[in-house]
Design goal:
Blueprint (H helix, E strand, L loop, with lengths): L7 H8 L5 E6 L8 E5 L2 E7 L5 E5 L13 E3 L2 E3 L6 E3 L4 E3 L16 E2 L1 E4 L2 E5 L23 E10 L2 H8 L4 H4 L16 E5 L3 E6 L9 E6 L3 E7 L11 E11 L2 E10 L3 H32 L15 H25 L1
Antiparallel strand pairs: 1-11, 2-3, 3-4, 4-9, 5-6, 6-7, 7-8, 10-11, 12-18, 13-14, 14-15, 15-16, 16-17, 17-18
Helix pairs in contact: 1-5
Pfam families: Rieske (PF00355), VanA_C (PF19112)
Protein name: Aromatic ring-hydroxylating dioxygenase subunit alpha
GO molecular function: 2 iron, 2 sulfur cluster binding; dioxygenase activity; metal ion binding
């Protein structure tokens, strides 16, 4: 998706809205050694203390701008590898070995960020300004309750993350692109759609068809933007009813997206163990094959494809979501202008 440099709203959306939680990476990506991640229009450094406590700073030493990620983690602080300047997890410079007592010591000179770990992933609060306490991280129930089991599927796709949002907000593509899938071979190839409001967003769904194919998508804002859909499973797919997918997507750069899909089933007891075994040994490869079909399409789309569209009724959900995100970006710009004034 080509960003319009002359459109400030588009520029906001290209790097992700502020004051929201975003998934950054799987939990396994970060250990005690600092890790640099480019996300949301900047670079972050993440690391853990020996106890497992997570921290995140902008990957920028306030002395000369060297990447802190190339330094050494010292518990709740990082010593920059360039000149040894020690920056604490709250962004305060604790030590300048080359010039003890200089004005840099004690200054909050680096942006700090709040991070949380849940559902096998690390989430970061993309605050517009430094804050002491972030809002709670509210995940969908499938990722937090005791009656669902889930696997995190993480990948990185070339292209703007907004094309990934469009793809998920398009149930009709399942009938065509994924028609050879064991779970998306049924249902009508024509459909009328409607938008149904919810407390946290909306559902875009086929009229008169439910539980047959990829028949609906939900978009929600709980302080984290996420999407939910269900795909009906044949009995060979094991216990647990429909296959639930929770998705959340984070911009890495203009041309790369971090793609998070949690694959969920409502199972407990022996059924949970049965499904997890079946998933890992039979079903996961099939799901990756379906994702590959999406990836191949999206990565081959031209950056300006969204500027040359001829949309129809099946695309109401995409239009609704794009309009809503633009309104959120406009509100962010207006709030920033008011603060500046």
């Amino acid at each position: 998706m080509r960003t319009n440099a002359n459109d400030p709203v588009d520029a906001v959306l290209a790097v992700g809205l502020k004051d929201l939680w975003y998934p950054m990476c799987p939990s396994s990506f970060v250990a005690e050694r600092p890790v640099s991640l480019r996300r949301l229009g900047r670079k972050f450094v993440l690391w853990r203390e020996a106890s497992g406590v997570l921290h995140a700073l902008e990957d920028h030493c306030p002395h000369r701008g060297a990447p802190l990620s190339l330094g050494i983690a010292l518990g709740d602080r990082i010593a920059c590898g360039y000149h040894g300047v020690q920056v604490r997890a709250d962004g305060v410079v604790m030590s300048v070995p080359g010039s003890p007592g200089c004005k840099l010591e004690g200054a909050k000179a680096t942006r700090s960020y709040h991070v949380r770990e849940a559902a096998g992933a690390i989430f970061l609060y993309n605050s517009s300004v430094d804050i002491t306490d972030p809002p709670p991280l509210n995940l969908p129930t499938e990722l937090t309750d005791d009656v669902h089991s889930h696997f995190l599927c993480y990948t990185e796709w070339k292209g703007d993350y907004r094309y990934v949002l469009d793809n998920v907000m398009d149930p009709m593509h399942g009938t065509f692109l994924h028609k050879q899938s064991h779970s998306m071979a049924e249902g009508d190839s024509t459909a009328a759609f409607r938008v149904r409001e919810t407390d946290t967003g909306f559902v875009f769904e086929k009229e008169g068809q439910r539980g047959v194919n990829f028949d609906w998508t939900e978009w929600a804002d709980t302080g984290l933007h996420w999407m939910r859909l269900e795909i009906p499973y044949p009995k060979t797919g094991g216990p647990g009813g429909n296959f639930i997918i929770i998705g959340s997507y984070t911009p890495i750069s203009e041309n790369v997206s971090a793609v998070f899909h949690w694959r969920c089933r409502k199972v407990d007891g022996w059924q949970r163990d049965t499904w997890r075994f079946l998933y890992q040994n039979r079903l996961e490869a099939r799901h990756w094959a379906v994702l590959e079909q999406d990836r191949a399409i999206l990565e081959m789309m031209e950056p300006d494809a969204n500027q040359r569209e001829m949309l129809y009724q099946h695309d109401m959900g995409i239009v609704r979501l794009r309009r809503h995100l633009r309104n959120l970006a406009k509100a962010q710009l207006e709030a920033g202008a008011e603060k500046a004034a």
